[in-house]
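Handout, page 2. Input:
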Amino acid sequence: MEIITDVLLIMTGLSFSNPLLKITFAGIIPVLLLVIWAIYMAPKSNKRLPEAQRLVVEIIIFGYTTIMTWLFFAPTVALIYLVVITINTYFDHKL
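Output:
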């Protein structure tokens, strides 16, 4: 799901016509997301956040991706992503 999230953010960023926005949203933000995920969220990370904090970070990241995809790329894709990510998060955290 993390890779799909990054791909959606890149695709959303590429939809901007302004070069600065394109670089920011298609390049910088997805790379920052990968770094944050690798350090604080990955299962084998030494600095992995506790369960509750990981859930909050996931809600922020996945929510942001859903909103950006809805507004700037494809609302249908955003809805499908939201359903899949919600199911995945539910089973991942066994809510």
